[in-house]
Amino acid sequence: MAEVVKKSIDQATIEMIAKAKTDECNIVFDRAETTKACPIGAEGSCCSMCAMGPCRVPLPRGKEETPEDKKKRRGVCGATAETIAARNFVRKIAAGTAAHSDHGRRVVSAFLDLAKGKTPGYQIKDEQKLLQLALDMGIKIGDRSNEEIAIELGETLIREFGKQEGELAFLKRAPLKRQELWRKLGVAPRGIDREVVEAMHRTHMGVDQDYQSLLLQGSRTALADGWGGSMIATDLQDIMFGTPSPVASQINLGVLKEDEVNVIIHGHEPQLAEMLAVMSRDPEIVAYAKSKGAKGVNLAGMCCTANEVLMRHGIPIAGNFLQQELSIVTGALEAMVVDVQCIMQSLVSVAQCYHTKIITTDPRAKMEGAMHIEFDDHHAAEGAKAILRVAIDNFPNRKKNVYIPPQKTDLIAGFSHETINYLLGGLFRASYRPLNDNIINGRIRGVAGVVGCSNARVTHDEVQLTMVKELIKNDVLVLQTGCAAMASAKAGLMVPEAASQYAGEGLASVCEAVGIPPVLHMGACIDNSRILIAATAMVKDGGLGDDISDLPVAGAAPEWMSEKAIAIGQYFVASGVFTVFGVTWPTMGSKEVTNYMFKDFEKIYGGMWAFEPDPIKAAQLMIAHIDKKRKALGIDKSRERVLYDMTMRRQLEGA
Fold it and tell me: What DSSP state is assigned to residue 65?
């Protein structure tokens, strides 16, 4: 058990790891021990871009690199360690951007089908956001129907993916100074797909072989994600399924139920999850579950799909990325329904130890040994019911080794940009001004976005949680998405009561006045675009500079795992945000490239990368950066409040 405790700080996870061992079921935590990370690949010193390789050009071990060593560190084609490290990094950005933007493209397609009346199971739920987005895109409203407006909006946005010239439309949402910088640097994205393709082309053998040039294209590609594919997906999902507002729910494996059919929806695209949420409560489905001996159907979420249905339906979350296998290990899960991204292939082999059905639903993401039921938006209700019936039919097949850990924690989620705006200023005076004022007066030191995945190479949830607690203790308001948000929620940081228990005196006073937690759940990993919009709103409300890079803010992904995290980090850096990653860093094989990203980027973008695996030290780096920005703004010292009399006022007017 002592060895198990080292793998996670979450008690439910610890208990399930121990149960998996007893059940002789191999899981991700076991494989992390037996499958060691390749040190050369981890530092970005391995090139497999052509069949003359793979070429390995590692840093010398145990001594400082000499000029002679550096000359020898070349691939067969002559590619330097710098070129190889930059190529690998940019390819990660391209892959992460492709994942997010393909999600976005799928959302636009579903939105157009809805507008054209082809998907009767869905409807426009946020008319106000539809009309606002249409106006932002220059689409006439007049006396046109919502459907007509939506069709033109969808057709306009789908062109953003294949556009060859000009700039992405959503770039105009950024502060003007930031837009000007992007144009000056030549990193303003043209079309989403074009930037991904060009990144792949430039990193092909024998094309772009200047690491600085490669990294510029990396920025342009990442910006196509944050201010393109991801932002489009978030806005249209809000219009179709509703813009999130605060909702109470629960999180952890304890949300599973012994007397109900347990179904977990896992992945990233919300269309299927939305329909399962509705159909799981359908009287016909509930009656069918009862006919099999269950009291009903209990739907729970996993990974980012969990965040989507949590924010809009209050559906509980079973866990984050490293808990996906463990939900099966409970022995109480009838079906895990998956679509795309972050789905472990090992789910099939783990399910063979129990009775769980693994059901794939997307033609882009199939798994050997899983059941495939393709989900079609045009017949969404029927498809969701078919999936639920498979799960219900499996309920009588539960084996005896069922154990659901009791741990579950209350949380409040749904803090979209619109919600934060409303909570701070009310319906008629919605504004970020109260946040800015409390940063200026020092009650809130600054704002940090702590996002990203879970990683089996570190103690599960510990790095995330330690960093977040250190930040809020020092009066830094924390915004979270994805699996990182789930770590904080499981620890009880996403309820208003957490402010008095964990936050510094200044932050706690603001949270108590507004009635919010010190850590705000803003959605799935695709919803990091909400943080960009929030940062821009802070700039526009005034008092904190005229660009995102002026703000006392910082970002982090302390347990990152996915290439999507690299794309996210790069679009935040290119937007002017200091960003710290933990676990590992993929350019350590080139000191020149790493120093360029960790130092010179700040001169170029106003934001830069940092790497620090220790969560306390990483948090202190973020706090030091926030303090540096406060000093530059002249708000680092408290100002004495002075009551002006008429004489003093006349002197001001005379000046």
Answer: P
- Contact (CB, 8 A) for 278 and 447: no
216 and 253 in a common domain: no
Q: Are residues 254 and 230 in the same domain?
A: no
| 261 in the same domain as 351 | yes
Residues 504 and 628 in one domain: yes
pLDDT tens-digit profile of 257-269?
999 999 999 999 8
What was the pLDDT predicted at 62?
A: 78
Q: Average pLDDT for residues 353-375, to the nearest whole number?
A: 97
Respond yes or no on whether the N-terminal peptide bond of residue 283 is cis (omega within 30° of 0).
no
- Which helix (H) or strand (E) element contains residue 479? strand 476-480
Q: What is the pLDDT of residue 69?
A: 82
C-alpha angle with apex 48: 42 to 51, nearest 5 degrees? 160
The CATH number assigned to the domain holding 611 equals 3.40.50.2030
pTM: 0.94
State which residues form the domain around 38: 2-70
Number of alpha carbons in the 13 Å side-chain half-sphere of residue 594: 16
d(CA 47, CA 55) in angstroms, rounded, equals 5
pLDDT interval class at 639 (50, 70, 90): low
Asked if residue 476 is part of any domain, the answer here is yes
Under 8 Å CB-to-CB from 340, ≥6 apart: which residues? Answer: 99, 103, 267, 268, 269, 362, 364, 365
Q: What does the alpha-carbon distance between residue 457 and residue 269 come to, in Å, rounded to a whole number?
A: 27
What is the secondary structure of 244-294 as a DSSP string? ---EEEEESGGG--TTSEEEEEESS-HHHHHHHHHHTT-HHHHHHHHHTT-
Report pLDDT for 643. Answer: 65
Q: Are residues 572 and 476 in the same domain?
A: yes
Task: Give the count of domains, the chain.
Answer: 4
